[in-house]
TrEMBL record, chain A:
Protein name: Manganese/iron superoxide dismutase C-terminal domain-containing protein
The species this protein was found in: Stereocaulon virgatum
Function per UniProt: Component of the mitochondrial ribosome (mitoribosome), a dedicated translation machinery responsible for the synthesis of mitochondrial genome-encoded proteins, including at least some of the essential transmembrane subunits of the mitochondrial respiratory chain. The mitoribosomes are attached to the mitochondrial inner membrane and translation products are cotranslationally integrated into the membrane.
Pfam family, one: Sod_Fe_C
Annotated PANTHER family: 37S RIBOSOMAL PROTEIN S26, MITOCHONDRIAL, SMALL RIBOSOMAL SUBUNIT PROTEIN MS42
Domain Manganese/iron superoxide dismutase C-terminal: 134-180, 234-273
From TrEMBL, chain B:
Transmembrane segments: none
Family stated for the protein in its record: Belongs to the universal ribosomal protein uS2 family.
InterPro entries linked: Ribosomal_uS2 (IPR001865), Ribosomal_uS2_bac/mit/plastid (IPR005706), Ribosomal_uS2_CS (IPR018130), Ribosomal_uS2_flav_dom_sf (IPR023591)
Alphabetized SUPFAM superfamilies for the sequence: Ribosomal protein S2 (SSF52313)
Entry keywords, A to Z: Ribonucleoprotein, Ribosomal protein
Organism: Stereocaulon virgatum
Name of the protein in its database record: Ribosomal protein S2
PROSITE patterns: RIBOSOMAL_S2_1
């Protein structure tokens, strides 16, 4: 076929196009749906105006929550686009891909989004006090609330590198057995998850210092009968020790002060609601069904 | 001990002989009769008590904890409580991480279809109900339902679709409220699930395979062997009328809802011959006079068919509920059939002439 003048050919093509420009209707970028969105916190506006109590200023809060969670959610959308996980909740994504090294990035972002939301959902602008029931439970596991606080903050302070520290409750706890306490402190490095089904990526130890002679095996102190992560635990409370949260307000050496100020911003009602203590041991009027069962009241 | 020795000594006799003779034969040697009989009695008593106890009480095997190797006390079994805790834990932790925007869930549309009150133009648009066929394939009788032309196809007016769909819902619920039998038909691949679900909700019948021509006009031949039953106003079976049922004519539906009238024109023609009203999804290339109550919509989109079938099924469910409530109040919404006391045997005697087969009318 002999090609005529290309300019003439272009004009011929243009004449055949409809007058309405249809190309902009099919631009995938403008029509791309983003199903994962930043969740709405109960105290979001208060935090953005006045900061989180004495713990974080408003700019730090916006960086640590709105910007960072927005970044994580955007990454989730991009990673799950055109896959079956496009509409799946974040927790399901992280549980499915906890054992998959090829989906490590997807797990990391999903787990980080889940952990970050858990952390911010337990914060309150007005300080709350522990209920007597919670004090009793903490004292049973840690001998007193002060010793629990000291242990918790010391653990968080001693962790080198970013991560989370959790207060967890063992669900298979036998009330008669005194050797394993009901509540425990769990550390997760980077984007490790405390959820039992994602035990493969719990990342509770710094592997650079954890591997030594006697760390594994029958005399290592690890329980040989339960599979790793087999203990069913419920996370109740956590602190985010990633530097981007506290660096702006406290500097590199201010981790300890950040942790101590965080203690006053905890919403203990939500912490108690997250755990499901033995209904038998509760009082007769401990009916929690009237509470909204979602973490963070949104 | 004494008895066992006696049995061994008298072994050959005890196998064949009943108990009495060997007791008598022992009477001369050892006076064990009284002891033995008393022991027998006590044995029988304990056995009878044991069997009574076993029959009355259920034996529970204790569960052993695999970790501690101790038996768990059954009164402290917390399986149900643990399950509730797990459900509550899921409810607390699943929403964390990100909030998912509302989106289309195909399984929900089939298993939990929308109510007639939830018919909106947005729902119909999202279900592609407005997409007709190319303009050259249209049926001009459908011009009143068409909004316009876009990219070579006819676009159906969704407000017209919504109005016709609501009318069809009213017809379905009205028929069922009066004790009618509705047949939901959808013979294209993929329409089976929604058609079955709609029939379940409405308490009617479904068809997703090919319609056998003559099932209404030649019903006694094709469906003559189908089982029928008689129920009262509370839908309870009334047994004992097999003779009358054998003489009665074959059941016909009181309303037919068809998802693809183009392929099922034979069924719809049979319905028109027997004065059975029909509802059908009318696309731009389908003849609207095939059905009594057309619903102008896209019959090629499975999602659209699922929405329409689901909504009509829900309307049927409402009709059933209304009928049952009225029955509870003593108001029977239909004319019950009269069962004659004289059992008709004409069919059996004459060999089945048309008049006899048609039955009492």
């Amino acid at each position: 076929m002999i090609l005529s003048n290309p300019l003439r050919q272009q004009t011929a093509l243009r004449a055949s196009l409809p007058s309405i420009c249809t190309q902009c209707l099919y631009n995938p970028k403008s029509q791309r749906r983003r199903l994962h969105r930043v969740p709405q916190l109960a105290h979001d506006e208060t935090f953005a105006e006045k900061g989180v109590g004495s713990m974080l200023g408003p700019e730090s809060y916006i960086t640590a929550w709105r910007d960072y969670e927005g970044y994580l959610v955007d990454r989730l959308n991009r990673l799950t686009a055109d896959t079956k996980d496009f509409t799946r909740p974040t927790k399901e994504i992280l549980l499915e891909y906890a054992r998959s090294p090829t989906h490590a990035s997807l797990f990391n972002h999903a787990s980080m989004a889940w952990n970050n939301h858990s952390f911010f959902s337990t914060l309150t602008p007005t300080p709350t006090s522990l209920s007597p029931y919670l004090i009793a439970r903490l004292s049973a596991s840690f001998s007193s609330v002060d010793s629990f606080r000291a242990t918790f903050l010391a653990t968080a302070n001693a962790m080198f590198g970013p991560g989370f520290v959790w207060l967890v409750r063992r669900t298979n706890h036998n009330t008669s057995a005194a050797d394993t306490p009901e509540l425990a402190i769990l550390t997760t490095y980077l984007a490790g998850s405390p959820l039992p089904r994602a035990h493969y990526r719990r990342q509770e130890q710094d592997m650079n210092t954890a591997l030594q002679a006697g760390a594994f095996g029958p005399r290592s102190g690890r329980d040989p009968k339960i599979a790793p992560g087999g203990a069913l635990i419920e996370p109740m409370l956590c602190v985010n020790t990633w530097q981007h949260v506290w660096l702006h307000d406290y500097g590199f050496g201010g981790k300890r002060e950040y942790l101590e100020r965080w203690w006053d911003c905890i919403d203990w009602e939500i912490v108690e609601r997250n755990a499901q203590f033995d209904a038998v041991n509760r009082g007769p009027n401990q009916n929690f069904s009237k509470f909204n069962l979602k973490v963070g009241r949104y | 001990m004494i008895i066992r020795k006696a049995v061994i000594r008298q072994g050959c006799h005890t196998r064949t002989a009943p108990t009495r003779p060997w007791i008598r034969s022992l009477a001369t040697e050892v006076d064990v009769q009284s002891i033995e009989s008393s022991l027998d009695n006590s044995l029988k008593q304990t056995k009878s008590i044991e069997s009574q106890v076993q029959n009355e009480t259920t034996k529970l095997v204790p569960i052993i904890d695999s970790r501690t190797h101790s038996t768990l006390k059954l009164l402290e079994d917390k399986t149900a409580e643990k399950y509730k805790q797990l459900q509550r834990h899921k409810k607390l932790t699943n929403p964390l991480g990100s909030s998912i925007a509302p989106h289309y869930k195909p399984h929900l549309l089939v298993n939990h279809p929308p109510q007639p009150s939830e018919i909106t133009l947005e729902l119909l648009l999202a279900s592609q109900a407005h997409l007709g066929h190319r303009t050259s394939h249209w049926n001009p009788l459908n011009s009143r339902y068409i909004f316009g032309i876009r990219q070579g196809i006819h676009i159906i007016s969704l407000d017209v679709t919504a109005a016709h769909l609501r009318r069809a819902c009213r017809v379905v619920s009205g028929v069922i409220e009066r004790g009618g039998l509705v047949l939901f038909v959808g013979t294209r691949p993929g329409q089976d699930r929604c058609v079955v679900k709609a029939a379940q909700l409405a308490g009617g019948c479904h068809l997703f395979e090919r319609w056998t021509p003559g099932s209404i006009t030649n019903g006694h031949q094709i469906l003559g062997n189908c089982k029928t039953k008689i129920v009262d106003e509370f839908d309870r079976d009334i047994p004992g009328y097999d003779e009358e049922l054998r003489d009665r004519p074959v059941l016909k539906p009181d309303l037919v809802v068809c998802m693809n009238p183009l392929e099922n024109w034979v069924l719809l023609h049979e319905c028109s011959l027997n004065a059975i009203p029909t509802i059908g999804i009318i696309d731009t290339d389908v003849d609207p006079t095939l059905v009594t109550y057309p619903i102008p919509a896209n019959d090629d989109s499975l999602r659209c068919v699922q929405v329409i079938a689901g909504v009509l099924g829900r309307a049927g469910e409402e009709g059933q509920k209304s009928r049952r409530e009225k029955a509870m109040q003593g108001n029977v919404t239909y004319t019950p059939i009269v069962l004659s006391e004289r059992v008709s045997t004409k069919g059996a005697q004459t060999g089945g002439s048309a008049k006899d087969i048609r039955g009492p009318q």
